[in-house]
Amino acid sequence: MSCNAPIGVFDSGIGGLTVVREIMRQIPGEPIIYFGDTARVPYGSKSQKTIITYSRQIIKFLQTKNVKAIVIACNTASALALEVVAKEVSIPVIGVVKPGAKVASEATKNGNIGVIGTEGTINSGIYNTYIKELNPDVRVYGKACPLFVPLVEEGWLTDPLTVEVAKRYISSLLGLNIDTLVLGCTHYPLIRNIIGSIVGNDVTLVNPAYETAIELKQVLLQAGIENNGAACEHKFYVSDGADKFKRFANTILPCDVVETEDVNIESFADALTTYL
Amino acid sequence: MSCNAPIGVFDSGIGGLTVVREIMRQIPGEPIIYFGDTARVPYGSKSQKTIITYSRQIIKFLQTKNVKAIVIACNTASALALEVVAKEVSIPVIGVVKPGAKVASEATKNGNIGVIGTEGTINSGIYNTYIKELNPDVRVYGKACPLFVPLVEEGWLTDPLTVEVAKRYISSLLGLNIDTLVLGCTHYPLIRNIIGSIVGNDVTLVNPAYETAIELKQVLLQAGIENNGAACEHKFYVSDGADKFKRFANTILPCDVVETEDVNIESFADALTTYL
Fold first, then answer.
1. CATH number at residue B203
2. Which residues of B touch A49 (CB under 8 A)?
């Protein structure tokens, strides 16, 4: 595998760009191939079988771009598909859940950790599993927030109605004396200010993107495949609405997204059976 | 084509069940094959090309069930795909937009009609086109309401927050002196009470499902393919989450939905190119 090969990063849509932003900040020399599954977004309420099928297709597509490692920049796919799909390829595959769990287990002082995410992520219980592996003495409380993704996609990032919805979701966690709250969906950092204003300054907000970029850096170093200084060009692909995606990406990323290409992602289907 | 063959009905997910309910009420003798594309829901913000591709796959699936006619029980797919896909099959294909436009053009007294729907439906301008074909002297005002579908899917059907979101969307139409409002998305009848309380008793709410069932009845009569009294069994298929769908269907429909089957809808892809 060439050191100068790109990193594949994928998400159900635009949320994963918050992870890309962090990778570009921490390891700016690595070229990125991003895929957003905008034709089938959102993943949050769909079944594990479907999320595994979609993840497999996307990984197959990314491999046609000769990526040297893959980041699943989507909590739902990290929760429901990572373990299965990582075994099927020979390159490193990392997700956002384990890094987020690591930060949360280190951040808590009183041992009460809240996690917010999609239905798929919360119902999987995966943050609880990973956090308890690192620190068995903590208590983890999950709350699914299905309307956050549509509110972010609607662009109501500072809207009073988003505040009201957030209060509704988060109030049940506040009564549990949490001192740490994991933003367990890559869309949520975009409404971080609203969430922060509700939980107050005494609760640490954990954005798994930061630690994910650190883990990616370590994985590349350990495998000896960090970029050795070659030109770094990023490429963006989606399954629907390339122009709309490009406009959004340019409001999020520090680089100029000049072009986004549409991909027929279903054509990357294969004969693999999904085992759960 | 056998008179006793079923009617195929499809939607992006659960919304089309409001159309099925109306068909069952008006033409109870007709067996229905329903397909809900729950793996790729929602359609409302996706491109015409993608909606055509998905509609083609679903029609191909429905044809394996030997349906004698197809109802596109989704406004977005009716708006963006019907015209293209109807030409590709030899059985009648009807949508919900033309029937809704007919009722609206007949209902208005002052000539000011509002239409609410998904981004795809509203941006297509199709209600305006059809209504003006029937009555060139009216004025049609559209407003996309992207959060209504997630609010309904979240089950907040009578929630004060849904009222607030609805007020935000609908207030701009109220200043335009509309006397008729088309519920241009099959999810919206499920929050009809909220919408009605905001627009008041002087505005007629149009649910295209009612007129769609009437049009279907006429189409079957004209083609001489109405069911002649054979046993009437309905079947339900989805692309994801069959159990969840079944639970919801049983709260909506007058019949008992005993079983819902998962279908790998992507496997019905074909080599057709999408022309726009």
1. 3.40.50.1860
2. 240
